[in-house]
Design brief:
Layout (H helix, E strand, L loop, with lengths): L3 H8 L7 H17 L4 H23 L2
Helix pairs in contact: 1-3, 2-3
Length: 64
């Protein structure tokens, strides 16, 4: 299952990084965090770190 997303993206000619979708998700999650009295900038940094690692792992899988 770990390898499924990058394989799906490759089979459907999708890029690993999809900036529009990423920005949409990031904005929604930051707003949800703020609604829960969390620091929006903190949530942004957490989500960016997760996203960077996800992209790194997907690239590793595709480059095998």
């Amino acid at each position: 299952l770990h390898d499924a997303l990058p394989i799906y993206k490759k089979e459907h000619d999708m890029t690993v990084l999809q900036p529009t979708r990423y920005d949409e998700i990031l904005s929604k999650r930051i707003n949800q965090a703020i609604d829960l009295d969390m620091d929006g900038e903190f949530m942004k940094s957490v989500l960016q770190a997760i996203h960077e690692e996800s992209v790194r792992q997907q690239m590793n899988i595709l480059n095998k």
